[in-house]
Amino acid sequence: METKEWLKAALNDLSRARVDYADGRYLDRETESITVRNEQVAGLSRRGDCGFGIRVLYKGSWGFAASARLTEADVMETARRALEVAKASYLTQREPVKLDEWQPHRGSYRTRFEVDPFAVPLDRKLELLFTAVKILRQDKRIAVAEGEMNFCRTEKLFLSTEGAEITQSILESGAGTEATAIEDGDLQRRSYPDSLGGDVATRGYEFVESLELVENAERIREEALALLAAEPCPVGKRDLIIGSSQLGLQIHESCGHPTELDRALGTEISYAGGSFLTPDKLGNFRYGSKIVNIYGDATIPDSIGSFGYDDEGVPAQRFPIIEEGVFVGYLTSRETAPIVGKKSSGAMRAESWNHIPLIRMVNINLEPGEQDLSLEDLIADTKDGILVATNKSWSIDDLRLNFQFGCEIAWEIKHGKRVRMLKNPVYTGITPQFWNSCDAICGRSEWRIWGLPNCGKGEPPQTMHVAHGAAPARFRNIEVGVKK
Amino acid sequence: MMGEQQILGLLKRVVGRSPAERTELVYMGGRTDLTRYTKSAIHQNVSEENIRVYVRVAEGKRLGVVTVNKLGEEELLQAAAKALELARHQPENPYFEDFPQPASYQRTQTYFEATAEFTPAARAEAMKRIFAQAERLGFEVAGAFTSGEAEVAILNSNGVAAYQPLTQAGITIVPVSREGMSRSSSFSHDVREIDFERVAAKALERCALNKNQQEIALGQYDVILEPGCLAEVMQWLCFIAFGSNSFIQGTSFMAGKLGERSMGENITIYDSVHEPEAQGLPFDFQGFPKQRVTLIERGINRGVVFDSMSANQAKAQPTGHGLPPGMPYGAIPFNICLQPGDSSVEEMIASCPRGLLVSSFHYVNGFLDPKKALMTGMTRYGTFLVEGGKIKHAVKNLRWNESMLRALSNVQAISRKREVIGDEGASFAVMPAVYIKDFTFTGVQKEESGPAPR
């Protein structure tokens, strides 16, 4: 590949210019997005995106430049521009950046799949979506019925002045449906298998078929309609059981983001925010109850938070974040890990060729409970509580302490039984208080991983694909509803 | 930058050779430079050159879209052929009639060479001066400084040939003390319009006030919201209420209620690219001239924005708010403005018996109940208790839950002065400060940890 040779030559030039370090990333991505809404194709497009980025560390200061123009002259010019930018950064330097030591890797990584979604005829994909949407629409109160599919194939090359040479090929497939019911000024929505686009995995079209969108459409429609007639969720402190996908988002917002070490060190403070989990708390802060164990793991097969190597060439790893309720680990990079006396956890990821890598979540998972408790067992064990499922709204403060989540649906639990459906459930809390109130987590059989392809961070904004594994769990005495 | 002749020439050749019955090309390309800093030092510094071409073709009422970031004539023709293949496998779209016809566009001034030529070293030098200004007061500074240039061109087989160059510059300054933070920003197409020292001074002055934050009782307070707060809220309203899809589908509070009152008489919200404070693209991403659209007039629901297909569906006229091809969101306003009033933040504070001055909102979410425009969010970068017409002290950041229909029915005063709050590219909001009665606060940012481990 010519681009690889040009990038190698550019990195050689930078080495001769005595930079501390440089890396080059080439990326070629193809995506397909299909949205069917009511009786129409609301959106259908294929997109190609290809280019390269060069990152330079000069006298301890960073510079980065990227271009979509794939000629030898443009690669060389982009390397020169990256160095010029790094020299500008150096003008304000206070502390030089130092990277932790890594043996440069030479390797490749490829996700597995059975059916290439780009080879599946469009007619077949549309038929599946139209069939599901037709079932969702079978009531005039369903104002909007929607189904979508998204596919993404990424080919990546990573080279560094240290001698790393890594290729990765990652295929992702995702799909979901949604029904919006409107009656008398009330609007209720149900999504399947999750809100905001469904679920995504590093698999082929077989993953879309395994979701059974058509088989679940009638249930989703009926739940959306039933919500119109349901009572609003009461306000007050209640025991709360959180379904698996919503708990995934809870982990994302209240554990994943605050354990990104760049946030904790203040490099996102003017945009996404900081973190209450400052380095002085590492190893000595009780984040949650003793049954709370949260870990990062970029090696889980089929999950979109997995990869072979991060965008600094560091191999994918599994690492603890919360152990028996104690905060023990951050998501880190080669630059930040030494600051807390660690090696990089391999969490530096860039959305595409035109972005610098930032510390991003991988798969951030809550360990299932030791006993194989089912959701029904947990409900049976709850005297007076609320079960919530499927995210509808999300908001958390800039230090990741005060959060509020809304869910699509809830059920009131009385004496171990679901007694009625409730609409517009909202719950709120303070992160460490909330996780310390966790007194039961369902077992392995209820645990599943949820792809979340829309995690935002950084300037210019980067959208990252991450995932969260969780089983339903119970939290005691949580503020439910909005007090006026 | 390729220039008008070269881009339109290339697009014209591709449209002329396209295998499709009708073809539309949307070109976006340029360079974006961004310097980020924290603790008064640059920690990220990037320069990106990118292009994107949306190729949309029509065969009868069937449409296909392929997007590429390559500019070769043959590569664009391959994209057109792929788009045609996609179109042939799709059902007819009953709302598609044709691509737009040629039109004239009201000129806007969006390109300034001084911005295009602003170098990474010039950004670093500007930052050094701001860092020194902050250091004199004992503060460190975080933030971002962006500058760049871009071109947008639209050409279709009906003869539309639109071109607009843009530059953008924007700075965000976040002074950080041991006790608190503040934020000030400025955006302009012309970097010379940004008074770095003044922006920094404003942020530093506010940061000095943001200390010893106290916890206050939750409940309803009169609030003075500075312009950035409303910009966040308006972005959500654009998405859940003022766009074509939410209107047609009935999820917007405006749906079926045009002509009815939803806000106070002093509220007029519109979308415009011809404001004294800011100008934008004079056409949308289909090549329709961008019209000024009144969304709320003196509190009354007046209309939403449309692209060609959503206009056909709603039996309305396109307003020039189409998004790039292939997106499933319909038309959305992206130059949202609130009509100014005759007050000022200082006058609002002086008139406030007891309330809160809010510098910024954070993490607003408008999906709680779109029919009521019910939203939640946090305050950030300085929240202050006002009593007896004076700022008394800083308070801890607060969570709020409020219907924006209720809040915008309770506006007591609006400032004369508005601020431009920039986004990427040609998107912006022009917002004043407002004084709102009885805004609902429901939670506080505080760290309450569990017992010490082990």
List keywords for this structure.
heterodimer; A: 484 residues; alpha+beta; PmbA/TldD fold; 2 domains; five-stranded mixed barrel; B: 454 residues; 22% helix
Question: How would you characterize the overall build of this protein?
Answer:
- Chain A is α+β, with helices and mostly antiparallel strands.
- Chain A is built from nine helices and 24 strands.
- Chain A has helices at residues 2-16, 72-90, 122-136, 205-210, 213-229, 244-256, 261-265, 375-380, 431-436, and strands at 21-37, 40-58, 61-67, 106-110, 142-160, 165-183, 186-192, 199-201, 231-232, 236-242, 294-297, 318-323, 326-327, 348-349, 358-359, 364-366, 384-396, 402-414, 417-423, 426-430, 438-441, 448-457, 462-470, 473-480.
- In chain A, the strands form five sheets. In chain A, strands 1, 2, 3, 4, 5, 6, 7 and 8 form an eight-stranded mixed β-sheet that branches.
- In chain A, a hairpin with a 2-residue loop joins strand 12 and strand 13.
- The longest helix of chain A has 19 residues, at 72-90.
- Chain B is built from ten helices and 17 strands.
- Chain B is an alpha+beta fold.
- Helices cover 22% and strands 38% of the residues of chain B.
- The longest helix of chain B is centred in the first third of the chain and has 16 residues, at 73-88.
- In chain B, strand 4 and strand 5 form a beta hairpin.
- Chain B folds into two domains: 4-209, 2-Layer Sandwich (PmbA/TldD fold), CATH 3.30.2290.10; 219-444, no CATH class.
- In chain B, strands 3-2-1-4-5-6 form a six-stranded antiparallel β-sheet.
- Chain B has helices spanning 4-17, 73-88, 113-116, 120-135, 196-209, 227-240, 244-249, 308-314, 345-351, 404-407, and strands spanning 22-38, 41-59, 62-68, 140-156, 161-176, 184-188, 219-225, 269-271, 293-297, 300-301, 335-338, 354-369, 374-387, 390-395, 398-403, 411-422, 428-444.
- Chains A and B meet through strand 1, strand 2, strand 3, helix 2 and helix 3 of A and strand 1, strand 2, strand 3, helix 2 and helix 4 of B.
- Strand 3 (61-67) of chain A pairs parallel with strand 2 (41-59) of chain B, so a sheet runs across the interface.
